[in-house]
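HOLO CASE FILE
Compound: 1-deoxynojirimycin
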Amino acid sequence: MQDFDWWQHSVIYEIYPRSFQDSNRDGIGDLSGMARRLDYLVGLGIDAIWISPIFPSPMADFGYDVANYCEIDPIFGTLQDFDRFLEEAHHRGLRVILDFVPNHTSDQHPWFLESRSSLKNPKRDWYLWRDQPNNWLSSFGGSGWEFDEKTGQYYYHSFLKQQPDLNWRNPDVKAAMYNILRFWLRGGVDGFRVDVMWLLIKDDQFRDNPPNPGYRAGLPSSHQLLPVYNSDRPETHSLVTEMRAVLDEFPGRVLIGEIYLPVQQLVTYYGPDLKGAQLPFNFHLLQCAWNAEALAHSILSYYDALPAGAWPNWVLGNHDQPRIASRIGAAMAPVAAMLLLTLPGTLTLYYGEELGMTNVPIPAEQVQDPAEKNEPGLGQGRDPERTPMPWDASPSAGFTAGVPWLPLGDDYPTINVEALEQNPSSILHLYRHLIRLRRTSPALVHGKLKLVAADRHLLSFQREGEKERFLVLLNLGYDSVQLPLVNATVVISTYLDRIAESVNGSFEIRPAEGLLLRLP
Ligand code: NOJ
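Model generated. Tokens follow.
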């Protein structure tokens, strides 16, 4: 795969650092803990790690409220710990992608403290201050505007009031943020996942958003309006191109954008001449209904929309979304694994997906996520998908010698790395096999995607490379499916049996079974 950039044939693994591995008994994961688990990640076969924010933060939104972009929060360690982690990851051939949060800072960031100190402060214009609020809403509930008593103006926050939005029309803000990118790039990080890339610029006239005709009671309050004037503004693209240009000052780095938009808008983030984000995250699978027709449609519509030369990518989970095994059922999770790992392009896994981890119900008194605290009961809370990684069956699952910051799932005595490693037909082994196959069969990474089809519960497609041809058959139902098929060989079943079985004639696909077959 020498003709491709590393990130094109990569499986990226998202670590939510609070929940991966604790090393100092405070119940919260940290860099030294993560470093201890690097060999596990090598064994899994992934290529790159994306770490959710580890920068100093009051943790109002668990690190997505950054108070210093060029340091490490003591909860996670020190800059030296990070350098050591990076070195150890690189030593094992793993790339490291950091989370860049450019839309907003913490309200404790020195820039904001200065900005709010007086109307005349040189940093006043670094944030979005207005005499009167408009109707824009915060994604975490209520108005997006907060009144500042001292200076008599309102500032805008897309998220919590502790996360004031930066003014990306101000050239000094841009210069400062680009220098932060350079700081980490010089330090050797391999790229960035950019938080809420599509929200960076807001309407210069601050026009009110129109009402959302689809809003109904029970939806989060932020859905009351259509985000016409505070998201996906045309000016965003020049910022993305500028960020990309900064990355291009350093060889071999990748710019990934967090973007929740319909495909037609999403793909514009590849930028003119593909000089925007190399990977605008494709979240369409994780939002798609789990049936063959909807999935086929999602895959094809994304594929059709890709600009010439744009590199596809796929995601089934992240720290903001219900875990896939809870969404589709644990018995179906292996089929999801096969779907993801047989699609073309770059793939992103969320930690614990390889264990079939499910959402952990969080008792009201243990809720941590501000999204749930602000609007309880609307399904906004993200704690359930952020619980500690279960490593073994010991108390606290080998995650910590202290009390974990979020509860472990009740199933951790059986659903943990050690137990699944001992079971040769576990989902963990399935992930390992499938990831390894992508290395040995480049057709799975960059071969053509053909004949995507849905027939009742069966989703099928082919992958065709120069030397190899594969057929993927995914039974999304719980009844067996009988198919006529000639001259094919099973490469792998999600049941992890029938390997190398040759198929010639009528052939059964078992309930919730995925099959990868080699075609002549
Ligand atoms: C998107 C992040 O993924 C999410 O966790 C965070 O709360 C918001 N952006 C605000 O930064």
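CASE NOTES: The two ends are 22 Å apart (CA to CA). The first strand starts at residue 11 and ends at 15.
CLOSED: yes
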